[in-house]
Amino acid sequence: MNVLLWLQMPWFASSRSARTLFFIAVLAPLACAIASCFFSGTPSRWWPFGLGLLCVGQCFLWVFFIPSTLALAMEANVLRMPAVQRHVVASVVLYGVVSVMAPTLWLGLVGAPPLTVATALLLSGCAGLIYATAPRYIAVMMCFAPALFNAARDALHLDPGELDDPHTTRLMAALALVVLAMVVRRVRWLLLYGDTQPKGWAAPMMFLWRLGSTDERRVLRNSPDWLRAAPDIAGAGPDHPHKAIRMALGGVYIPLTWRGVGQQLLVAGLGFAVMAVCGLLGGIGAGARRGLPSSGVLHVMALSGFGSLGLIVGTMSGFMALAVLNRRWKGASTELSLLALLPKLGDGLALRRSVVRACLSVPLFLQGLTLVAVLACMALWPQQARIGGFALLSLLGTAAITTALVVSILGGYPLGTWRNALLLGLGQVLTFASVGLPWLAWNQQTDWAGALLSPLVLGWLLLIVAMLWLARRGWLALQQLPHPFLAR
Amino acid sequence: MNAVLRATETVVPPLAVRELVHCYEGHNVLAGVDLVLQPGSVLGLIGRNGAGKSTLIRAMLGLLKPLSGEATVFGEPALTLRDDTKARIAYVPQQPEALAWLTARQMLDFVGRFYPRWDGRFAHDALARAGIVPNRLLAKLSPGERQRVDLIRALASQPDLLVLDEPAAALDPVARRDLLREVAMRAGESGTTVLFSTHIVSDLERVASHIALLRDGKVQLHCGVDETKERYARLWLPAAMAAHASAPSLSQRRHDDGSLSLVVARDANGQWPSAARLAGARLDTLGLEDLFVEIAA
Fold first, then answer.
1. Distances from the Cα of B138 to the Cαs of A224, A233, B141, in angstroms?
2. Buried b (16+ CB within 10 A) or exposed e, B78-115
């Protein structure tokens, strides 16, 4: 028995990013649960909320953290190291017991029914592990399960009931046992034959984050040809240096043919369409329970969904562009070497402008499309135009953040992972506040939300000014560099 | 007048570095490197893993800014090359992974647009000879195939200066021999200057006209390949004489029995160090591989 080793095993087997994720996704919900319990006046009524937070943490623990040990065990099997496999199995069992029993004990002490808590935690953990070990195409479909359930609950008269209802507990226990059986079978199979698993979309989901989804070459290698966007190399040459630079940068920057654009929209659109239809059906059902007309609910949901989707796309475009640029300008990237020695790209200020144009074009174009979406919502929903105004402000802020971070990378002043995450996170918080607070203030007549609107505007304005300063600093630094493709 | 101009052009070295210093995380990788490539020469850059070969190559081409020192390409500062000069250079990095999202044909088509002397026919034929499917995504090629495609890309631009960072690392023996033949042919027929880094000493012997050995951030040895046997030797001194040895040497190794092995060079007058004349001293001729092992170890 080496309990300490078993406890340490997931930590040793995890990549650095998985460890970071552990703090964010697992410990943050746990900390929130502890804090909310501490500040809650009546813990006996608080426990469903705390259990919800703990289930989120439990799910993430078994999605992102524990599977790294399973991958280690699979490698140990290939390397004929059965002792490592045995330790991994012991570690997984230990974490299973501790992650269910410890919270159950805690919540039991504050008055929660222990069986319900244990069942919910077991179900969350098993769901997380089955998601992590399932082939990627099945795991993607599993993401739609909550939306599908929400949509189907009215049509099929499914009512999960209250959490402390014994019937609900029995239902959860039965479901947990089924999923547990599936998990045991799947894990056992992976430990024995995991190395013979096909790669790409048929590979277990956990491999995606274990090796890093940012390894674009591996992703490209494992992607089927029909899923690959068709690059448009026709105009990428000395006559259009910014397009040539985009081609060399890769990722979201690759110029696509119209067929390629349609193909990508189809792939992304399918997922969004399923989510949108499920969301609408769920919303109509919820509206019907409150006696609201379907047409009104549909109108509100369609427009708010459209606007929210626009905001998400706008923010995500910035994230993805920054990820590509960070990879290219970090270390000795081969693309950067190629660009540095490629003749006819221009020189001096013209080349720097081409680089900035190429690097900003894609995220700002997508954010421009988002702007159009928000303006369309404002036109179709004039009574909510004031909310649209806040959405516009958030878009402006997001564009400023994207511009500042991009130009900082180009100028040799990358802010680093944590500062980038902090700024982007702040932008996200302000964006969601820009959608939520005006809605609460003007539609729900919530006083505290109304009082926060002016500080929100001020916050955005301060952030935009700071971003403009950062962008200017980056641009001046870029002009001082001997050429814009110097590795950092 | 034209003759004078031509003469001036020919003496401009394709690559030259002076007092080049660079460090990573406080560790000096290049500690004052001086190196000049003569036009038409094939220089093999050799050194142990982590000796700084790739860093030196990248600094020579202006791909990174050294802490201090100067690098020039065809007489121009490496960090601010003009388009005309860039068109004369081809560089194949150690891990040619660029543009993995394009097919081999798309990549060659795209890159070829930038080079005025691009030989599309050569690129097409070379791909066919290598048995690489042109419509295959670069990301899906094996490392050896990727390296071959990148070498084809480099050679198709008909460069005056070809810089290869461990070009044979992923190649099979047949492909390696093809590459060396191509390099030798380009250097011999077109006067292309070649710099290539490698661990494989037999490759050096096959094509290099000169070698440079990088150790401790400096070029320890730079001479013609044919000169090495004449110029360098291993001097072995018995234990009794080892204490009297004051010979300037490229490396020293003391054996368990107290005897001493030194790699020594002839002086400007072609004489071995005086220690070679001590009683019991022995001079051994060194092959290129032995010389590398003795100095780099």
1. 14, 15, 5
2. bbebeeebbbbbbbbbbbbbbbbbbbbbbbbbbbbebb
User: Domain residues of chain A, as ranges?
Assistant: 3-133+164-210, 246-480
* Chain A with chain B: Cβ pairs closer than 8 A: 106
Q: Determine whether the interchain pair B111/A338 forms a contact, defined as Cβ–Cβ distance below 8 Å.
A: yes
> What is the Cα–Cα distance from A360 to A322, expressed in whole angstroms?
10
Cα–Cα distance for residue pair A45/A112, rounded to 1 Å: 9
Q: Is B194 exposed, middle or buried (0-12, 13-18, 19+ CB in 10 A)?
A: buried
Contact list in B for residue A250 (CB cut-off 8 A) is 99-101
The distance of B80 to chain A (nearest Cα, Å) reads 6
For A278, other C-beta atoms within 10 Å of its C-beta total: 19
CB contact under 8 A, B64 and A486: yes
3-state secondary structure of A162: coil
Residue pointed to by tokens 């080079």: B115
All residues of chain B having their beta carbon less than 8 Å from the beta carbon of residue A332 are 54, 58, 63-64, 93
Does residue A345 contact residue A354 with C-beta atoms inside 8 Å? yes
Nearest to B233 by CA among B286, B164, B183, B182: B286
Closest Cα in chain B to A235: B110
Are B58 and A482 within 8 A, CB to CB?
no
CA B124 to each of CA B107, B120, B121, B152: distance values in angstroms, whole numbers, following the listed order: 12, 6, 5, 9
Pair of tokens at residue B88: 């004369």
Give the predicted TM-score (pTM) of the model.
0.79
Contact A181, A128 (CB under 8 A): no
Q: Which among B101, B133, B145, B164 is the top mutation candidate for probing chain A, defined by the most A β-carbons within 10 Å of its own β-carbon?
A: B101
User: How far off is chain A from B141, nearest CA to CA, in Å?
Assistant: 9
* Amino acid occupying residue B238: P
pLDDT in tens, chain B (297 residues): 444 444 445 578 999 999 999 998 778 889 999 999 999 999 999 988 888 999 999 999 999 999 999 999 999 999 999 999 999 999 999 888 889 999 999 999 999 999 999 999 999 999 999 899 999 999 999 888 999 999 999 999 999 999 999 888 778 888 888 888 888 888 888 889 999 998 888 888 888 999 999 988 899 888 888 888 888 888 888 887 777 666 677 888 888 888 888 888 888 888 888 888 888 888 888 888 888 888 877
CB contact under 8 A, B139 and A220: yes
